[in-house]
Specification:
This protein is α+β, with helices and mostly antiparallel strands and 381 residues long. It is 29% helix and 34% strand. It contains six helices and 24 strands. The relative contact order is 0.19.
Length: 381
């Protein structure tokens, strides 16, 4: 009979060797390539634009001030009313100005009568001197009297014109189409040239939007919209100007650059530009802040990649691309503006190169990957 102890040793050793073999990692196993989703960099015609913060400026603004003194008889408009050029807004009591006009008219009649009498006397003196029945000195006096009477008539006519003006100033009218602000007087108030304005009127159509930019920004603007200073304010191929209103909506109406200052403000280091809009619906308000968007007159081809492919490190923006051998490569890029869900690539990438969209966390530069084309983006293009 065999000794059990002698058999147990080899059996245990064999069992331990089997366990080690099963648990040991396979040294020669090759890891599988990570699966990633890619999209190709593509070219698309885009209309270039630049953005600035602007402020509405009325094309015309006027404080309505009484030109003559008197008590306000009537306020013919309400606060904030839209008015037309020539519309009467306020009336000042006109009684004393009507009386002054009547007196000036009477004075003109008297001066005219004096002139007629002086001319009659001149004719008589002329005849007497011709017959040597009167001295020459009397004729000279008669001529001087006619000249004085003519001057009196001219002065009376000027006084009558002034009286007419003063009377007309008792009705205060709108100098242009626009909208009033708050009315500053009530009927019965005493007003005159030295009192506060009765109201302020601003012209709403057309309206300007003013914004400032540095010399460098001006050069960037001219390069972006593909024009020069003359073309910037010209009516031909000048860039299109649009607005984003304070509530975030884009104004349907388009404007144009109407003014570019000819010098840099030494205090701010900027130039002032003004864009003109018809403002038919009155959505641009005097003093309101808006976003100005200036677009190039023609689209230009730009290289684009999906925004989801862009990452950033200490060196700046980069994308991970899959090269022809199926390996990952890191490529730093210079980005431009965003266009929808894509972004413009200024430098660092070529059209057709494949950028990784999904699976970025599972890969690193140099490793092989299994690339799958993003079908949704291919269908969109």
């Amino acid at each position: 009979m065999r000794d059990p102890g002698r058999l147990a040793g080899p059996a245990v050793a064999t069992f331990m060797l089997l366990v080690w073999a099963l648990s040991a990692p396979a040294q020669d196993a090759v890891p599988s390539a990570a699966r990633v989703t890619i999209a190709a960099a593509y070219t698309e015609d885009l209309v270039e634009e630049v953005r600035f913060i602007g402020r509405g400026e009325a094309a015309a603004r006027s404080d309505l001030i009484a030109r003559v003194t008197g008590f306000v008889r009537e306020v013919a408009v309400a606060d904030g009313a839209a008015v037309e050029a020539g519309e009467t807004l306020f009336r000042i009591e006109a009684d004393r100005y009507e009386a002054a006009r009547a007196a000036a008219e009477a004075e003109l009649a008297r001066a005219t009568a004096d002139l007629d009498l002086a001319r009659i006397e001149l004719d008589r003196k002329t005849a007497l001197v011709a017959r040597e029945a009167a001295p020459q000195s009397e004729l000279d006096l008669a001529r001087a009297a006619v000249a004085a009477a003519e001057a009196g008539v001219a002065a009376a006519r000027a006084a009558l014109r002034q009286a007419d003006l003063d009377l007309s100033y008792t009705g205060i009218t709108a100098p242009f189409d626009g909208r009033l602000g708050r009315i500053g007087v009530s009927p019965g108030a005493y007003v005159g040239p030295n009192t506060a304005p009765l109201a302020t009127i601003v012209q709403q159509s057309p309206i300007y939007v003013a914004f400032s930019l540095s010399e460098g920004q001006l050069v960037d603007l001219l390069q972006q919209v593909q024009t020069d200073i003359a073309g910037l304010t010209g009516r031909g191929a000048s860039p299109v100007v649009s607005l984003e209103l304070p509530n975030g909506t884009v104004l349907e109406e388009r404007g144009r650059i109407a003014f570019l200052d000819n010098r840099v403000d030494p205090e701010t280091g900027t130039l002032t530009l003004r864009a003109e809009f018809d403002n038919a619906r009155g959505l641009i308000l005097d003093g309101a802040f808006v976003n100005v968007r200036i677009q190039a007159p023609r689209p230009v081809p730009r290289l684009l990649v999906p925004q989801a492919a862009v990452q950033r490190d200490q060196r700046g923006d980069f994308v991970l691309i899959v090269d022809d051998a199926g390996h990952v490569e890191q490529r730093h890029v210079t980005l431009g503006r965003q266009a929808g869900t894509a972004v413009v690539v200024e430098e660092g990438l070529r059209e057709g190169e494949s950028v990784i969209l999904e699976g970025l966390q599972r890969v690193r530069p140099g490793v092989p990957v299994e690339a799958v084309l993003d079908g949704r983006r291919a269908a969109e293009r």
